[in-house]
Amino acid sequence: MNNSFELFDNTLPGEFPYTRGIHGTINRSNPWTMRQYSGFGDAKTTNERFKYLLNNGQTGLSVAFDLPTQMGLDSDNKTAQGEVGKTGVAIDSLRDMEILFDGIDLSKVSTSMTINATAAILLSMYQAVGEKNGVDKHLLRGTIQNDILKEYEARNTYIYPPTASMRIICDIFAYCRKNLPNFNTISISGYHIREAGATAVQELAFTFSNAIEYVKAALASGLSIDEFAPQLSFFFVAQINFFEEIAKFRAARRIWAKIMQDKFKAVDPKSLMLRFHVQTAGSSLTSVQIDNNITRTTLEALAAVLGGTQSLHTNSKDEALSLPTESSALLALRTQQLILHETGIANTVDPFAGSYYIENLTNEIENKVTELMSVIEKRGGAIASIEDGFIQKQIQDSAYSDHLSLTNNQKIIVGYNKFTDDIESPANKILKINNQIEVNQINALNKLKPQRDNLKVQKSLNDLQNLCKTKENLLPGILTAVKTYATVGEISDALASVFGRYKSYQAF
Fold first, then answer.
1. Per-residue model confidence (pLDDT) at position 295
2. Residue 175 has pLDDT above 90, yes or no
3. CATH code, domain with 125
4. Per-residue pLDDT tens for 97-127?
5. How do 186-189 and 183-184 pair as beta strands?
6. How far is it, in rounded angstroms, from Cα 281 to Cα 238?
7. How does DSSP classify residue 204?
8. pLDDT tier at 29 (50, 70, 90 boundaries)?
9. Tens digits of per-residue pLDDT, 195-247?
10. SS3 category, 1
């Protein structure tokens, strides 16, 4: 360990390169957004959960969509059978979106949507709901994940090939700059990369390599760096390794500020600031002794807050078994509220600054991330490293190494491979999604289609297909289709008819 203070970043919070935070006072003046991730079953049920959490002090919405919605499949698609509403809310058309936000003033709440391949469609639906409720689109606030590269690397809810996906993302950047200026156009995600088995260093290196590809694509489309960079945001995990996570967040801010200033010559300070949401680690939760998960989540949330997150989701104790029950979701929210209001942690910015261990660990992570990013750059960048399987193989190798350490008892997980004789925590109130949800969604689709103006629907889809063959922005065409009540599946199919569907690389 190098004990020289000369190696430490002695800048203040709010000063470049923002190691200690992007704001000078952070949680003292503006506490992080408590944004619990919610979505299950149908739109009505999820709407009720949203209102429950908002009434109990949640300060922002975060929508989980089911897998069919994420992959551009309607609920009546045979491929969607058994998955409707199971890992998030089922959204087939604008009608579902209207129900999802019924009674919620979109001018007063920001909404994050974890959606990628179909992000343009769901964003258009959100805009349409706002307009129907009389909310000026310029007042709509929120974030779409819209990070397709990590889908090819770690999560697999892609539809179109990378080139087409990047075109859609750049169209979203340009459209939101003019029409939805308060929407974060992308949340570049390290969370899913880490949950798939990556290390902390790989999480940052792969995420920032992906981010560089997005920035390059936006610049190539004709946007200038300071036009869109302030709307970029990130999404990281808070894992159980407490000090490593704090140092990771500090290093991440410094790395991104240097990338934007040195590589892309950004001038606007907002372009240099790493703004990010954090979710505690789902992969750290156990399906046995589930009360232990409360402690795990609390420690992970502490690391996120001490690391300077602007937004936080705390996992519920039962999420290794099912979607969270109402009571466990409330307990997860109360965990954040307790940290903010009772611990005093929010009264100071970057309290570990000057710690020999944290400062050196921050430097070490930065150096290793930079080295790995250089390897990726020499290979042609993130897209090339996805297409030849390099990044996927790196994640797989790390996941396998971690698995071996667990099976060999080198890594201890309390209640799983040590201290296993405890009485099991009760898990008798597991949330189960009734299969009737799928039947209801299909019935609703069957009812919707004869009621809408199908000539307008078909025209909008034909126009969208033709638009795909030009260089024009796709978002106005998607919005038009959404407003005719064309479904997620119909719009996705229209795009895929021109762009094709991606086949994963399987040679590694």
1. 98
2. yes
3. 3.20.20.240
4. 999 999 999 999 999 999 999 999 999 999 9
5. unpaired
6. 6
7. H
8. low
9. 999 999 999 999 999 999 999 999 999 999 999 999 999 999 999 999 999 99
10. coil
DSSP assignment string, 44-104: HHHHHHHHHHHHTT--SEEEEBPHHHHTT--TTSGGGTTTTTTSSB---SHHHHHHHTTT-
Contacts of 74 (CB under 8 A, 6+ apart): 68, 80, 92, 445, 487, 488, 489, 490
pLDDT for 4 equals: 42
Task: Record the pTM.
Answer: 0.91
For residue 233, which phi and psi values (nearest 5 degrees)? -140, 170
Residue 480 lies in a domain: no
Is 346 inside a domain boundary? yes
Contact 90, 69 (CB under 8 A): yes
The residue range of the domain holding 41 is 22-407
Residue 205 exposed, middle or buried by CB count within 10 Å (0-12, 13-18, 19+): buried
Number of domains within the chain: 1
pLDDT of 6 strictly over 70: no
d(CA 480, CA 407): 53
| Cα angle, residue 232 at apex, residues 308 and 347 outer, rounded to 5° | 15
Residue 195 located in a structural domain: yes
Q: Which residues pair with 184 in a beta bridge?
A: 143
Note the pLDDT tens digit of each residue in 445-464. 999 999 999 999 999 999 99
Q: What SS3 state is found at 281?
A: coil
Looking at residue 453, its pLDDT comes to: 98
What is d(CA 89, CA 102) in angstroms, rounded to the nearest whole number?
15
In a domain, 461, yes or no: no
Q: DSSP of 422-479, one letter per residue?
A: SPPPP-TT-----THHHHHHHHHHHHHHHHS-HHHHHHHHHHHHHHHTSSS-SHHHHH
- Helices 292-306, 326-342: axis angle to 10 degrees equals 40
**3 state DSSP class of 113:** strand
508 — pLDDT class (breaks 50, 70, 90): very low
Q: Supply the DSSP string of 372-422, one letter for each residue.
A: HHHHHHHTT-HHHHHHTTHHHHHHHHHHHHHHHHHHTTSS--BTTTBS--S
CA 445-493-196 angle, to 5 degrees, is 95
Pairing of strands 141-144, 110-114: parallel
Helix axes 292-306, 242-258, angle to 10 degrees: 30
Q: What is the mean pLDDT of the chain?
A: 93
